[in-house]
Amino acid sequence: MTPTSATSSWTATDLVDGVSADLTDPIDVLDPATGHPCGEVSHGADAAERAGRAADAAARALPGWADLSARQRADILLRAVDLLADRIPEIARILAVEAGKRLPEAEGEVRFSSEYLRWFAEELRRPHGEFFTSEDRARRQLSIHRPLGVVASLTPWNFPISIQARKVAPALAAGCTVLARVSEKAPLAVTRWLGTLQEAGLPPGVLNVVHGSSRTITSTWLDHPAVRGVSFTGSTGVGSQIMAQAARRIVRPMLELGGNAPFVVLEDADLEVALTQAELGKLRNTGQSCIGANRFLVHRSLAEEFGARLAARFDALTIGPGTADPVPDVGPVIDANRVTAVTDLVEEAVADGGRLLTARRELPAEGFWVAPALVADVPLTSRLAREEVFGPAAAIIAFDTEEEAVRLANDTEMGLAAYVVTRDAGRAFRFAERLDAGIVGINDALPTVSFTPMGGTKQSGLGREGGAEGLREYQETTYLAWRP
Predict the structure, then answer these.
(1) Which stretches make up the Aldehyde dehydrogenase domain (predicted)?
(2) Domain covering 3-257+460-482, topology
């Protein structure tokens, strides 16, 4: 990926078998803060052919990459960490422009992504496998891990670098070769990030990037005989389609799908902690986070004050481009469709009888903007109370008992993340253990780190990313029975 001019216009092209391709049939990448192009991405009609060549290259590269020692693979990943350290400002600025992120959040995402490379480089050198206690003294029994094979990594636009890092780092560490497809809405910074891994010394074909039709590229890879796994982050609807395609060849699906995270404020909560964490959990990345707080469940004794004070905080936030100086508190959403989707949810909730607590604010004329919104007294049947919002808006729903709070929190087909605020440590753990979610933050709205597992229950997906469990997703286990 290279800049095409001095006015912050960049391109994203394919990387196949170690070679960066020329830009083919480009489409514009829009800056959400203006609605104007900030770059271009290859998006040609020949996506199936390019995807097929990439899969062939990954298959050829697999034996050599898998045969390298753990130390050799780790050295390359750590070399990439060093290279990326010098490129944080450059990559973060591209990310802030194309994805509408506040510059500090963009810089944080680039740093966080490097931590996945560092942690998995260290983890792969630790002993893995298991010796079993045998009932037959003449036999020894053990298990070993080996690479899964060629894997596809399919990622969205909201955290384009860190989500790729959660997949690519463990896959490469495990000895797999990778086929990456990124969203055309924010492909520029992540393509630069992936290219840095190539510069760090990956052999040709170990990491391949193809841009274009997601449906065409995904189908091509899932039909390729060398592909053994597919890791996808995105909507539950698309995830179920990918799972069905993967079933045709018994390709391992690893799916991190939609969320509907409850943020529960119990009656003994420190209200200042609750407000601060609620603001962080709702407005990170302008609310466009699958693990973000999606609905506030607040004990009735605190609901009125919580709503009034959080609304005042929301109304005091500055809104503007993420690269502005000073940096605003809230940036744009990704596109016009997201503006419509979030605005409709808020308006429908008010029409259903909810009370809009936040002010209706004047927004920039250009770009894609939604003012942070809170709606109280939202009926449980309203879409704002039941659907993933994926934007800077939320419902406040009062409850009377802890049992009711648990029931409301679990009353969703999703189970990715949940949050609870309380002063009582024992109560926190008792409550958290009853939440049907893969991630629970206790007095903490930003719980994810590189060395812990992330993933969901129910329709929020299969498998885990991050931590030792994330490495296992890209490995096969072989059991050995040995008679010396």
Answers:
(1) 25-478
(2) Aldehyde Dehydrogenase; Chain A, domain 1 (3.40.605)
Number of Cα atoms under 13 Å in the Cβ half of residue 263: 25
Q: What tokens does 363 get?
A: 């927004």
From the candidates 98, 105, 184, 256, which is the catalytic residue?
Answer: 256
pTM higher than the cut 0.85 = yes
Active site residue 256: yes
Per-residue confidence (pLDDT) for residue 1, from 0 to 100: 45
Could you read off the pLDDT of 13-66 as tens digits, one per residue?
999 999 999 888 999 999 999 999 999 999 988 999 999 999 999 999 999 999
Q: CATH homologous superfamily of domain 261-448? A: Aldehyde Dehydrogenase; Chain A, domain 2 (3.40.309.10)
Q: Where in the chain is the domain with CATH 3.40.309.10?
A: 261-448
Asked if 181 contacts 150 with a C-beta cutoff of 8 angstroms, the reply is: no
Give the number of C-alpha atoms closer than 13 A to the C-alpha of residue 10, restricted to the C-beta side. Answer: 23
pLDDT in tens, 289-338: 999 999 999 999 999 999 999 999 999 999 999 999 999 999 999 999 99
